[in-house]
Amino acid sequence: MTEEKILCHQCGKDLVMKFIELKDLVFCSSACFENFKSSMSRKDFFKNYGDGFTPDEQRWVPKYSNDYIKMCGYCPKNLAETCHEELDISGVYHDDVIDTEEMRWCCHARFILSASMSDGTVPYEVGKKVQKRAEEITREQGIKIVTTINTTNAFADLAKDFNYKKLQENSPEPKELEMSHAAACLMCDPEIAKQCEEWVVKEFAMVDTVKKHLKGRGLWCAHTIQALADILIDRQGGEELIDEIIPLVEKVAEEKGHPGVITRDLFVGLGRSLS
Question: Across-strand partners of 151?
Answer without folding.
Answer: none
